[in-house]
Write a structure and sequence with these properties.
The protein has about 270 residues and is of the alpha/beta class. The chain is about 40% helix and about 20% strand. The mean pLDDT is about 95. It binds NADPH dihydro-nicotinamide-adenine-dinucleotide phosphate (NDP). NADPH dihydro-nicotinamide-adenine-dinucleotide phosphate (NDP) binds next to α5, α6 and α9. The site of NADPH dihydro-nicotinamide-adenine-dinucleotide phosphate (NDP) has 27 residues, from α5, α6 and α9.
């Protein structure tokens, strides 16, 4: 039976993951099948079991199932434990279900691909949801000097900061209290989806500051447009999506795909659909 993989979400119709993983499989000559599966919101576990019965070996998990995947996994990687979320599931040879999160590695690799220095930089992370939580550990490991987490619901930013307080200079606050300037500002809110801009102070960026929005699209997000108007270099989250997928692929197949060709082709496709 062909090894099967899939991305689980709800909704899942517009996911680029099947496109990405098929390209990785072709490039590395791996025989596998990868689908998009819209699981019922109330029965992620049932959908996963049906998938395993049909030859499923591993999966990516996206909104709203990252917590369900976390609960279902029998063995969690340390980074998934710390993030409190799982975006990659895999069946081990021992029959156990392993859970990991690759979002943080994906972000750090994409920042590196854009020659964004991390060691010693001051970082402002916007948002305190799943995506934000998953990238904190890898950012701290990359040697950033300080991390300020700012969120609309301030208490959530403060709680998240407390979780990582033993790891260095980490603080939580509201958007308007984010005391810059920062070398790197990462938008991990879903505000861009609604065309909203977190209300940040004007002096948010250093002179050579970088703005990163985890969201991506044919056009720059409202956050990236605002950042560019304030003198920052801007990067969207398309590369993060590709890099987190590459890390999942490696976990499943022990083969690391070259992400560069896909970065170019997906960017071209995005701009053609604008
Ligand atoms: P969650 O639902 O877990 O968290 C959403 C966060 O956004 C919360 O902090 C919430 O604040 C904040 N928020 C929502 N709406 C607004 C608004 N209008 N103004 C200000 N803040 C707002 O989502 P995720 O963390 O899972 O995802 C966040 C974003 O990251 C999404 O756009 C997602 O697509 C993207 N993402 C991209 C990835 C990639 O590979 N490129 C990977 C993972 C995520 P509050 O707590 O106050 O509700």
């Amino acid at each position: 039976m062909t090894d099967r993989y899939a991305v689980f979400g709800n909704p899942i119709g517009h996911s680029k993951s099947p496109r990405i993983h098929k390209a990785f499989a072709e490039q590395t000559a791996q025989t596998l099948r990868y689908d998009a599966i819209e699981a019922p919101k109330a029965d992620f576990a049932g959908a996963w079991q049906a998938f395993v019965d049909a030859g499923g070996r591993g999966a990516n998990v996206t909104v709203p199932f990252k917590q369900d995947a976390y609960s279902l996994a029998q063995v969690l990687s340390p980074r998934a434990q710390r993030a409190g979320a799982v975006n990659t599931l895999m069946l081990g040879r021992d029959g156990k279900l392993y859970g990991d999160t690759t979002d943080g590695v994906g972000l750090v690799r994409d920042l590196q691909a854009h020659a964004a220095p991390l060691a010693g930089v001051r970082v402002l992370l916007l948002g305190a949801g799943g995506a934000s939580r998953g990238v904190i550990e890898p950012l701290l490991e990359a040697g950033i000097a300080s991390l300020t987490i700012a969120n609309r619901t301030v208490a959530k930013a403060e709680e998240l900061a407390l979780l990582f307080a033993d790891r260095g200079e980490v603080a939580g606050c509201g958007f308007d209290a984010a005391e810059g300037p920062f070398d790197l500002v990462i938008n991990a809110t879903s505000a861009s989806l609604a065309g909203d801009l977190p209300p940040l102070p004007d002096k948010t960026f250093t002179a050579d500051g970088l703005a990163y929005d985890m969201m991506y699209g044919a056009e720059p997000t409202v956050f990236l447009r605002w950042a560019a108007a304030h003198g920052a270099r801007t990067v969207d989250g398309l590369g993060m999506l590709i890099e987190q997928a590459a890390e999942s692929f490696w976990l499943w197949r022990q083969v690391r795909p070259d992400t560069a060709p896909l970065r170019e082709s997906l960017r071209r496709e995005l701009s053609q659909h604008s």
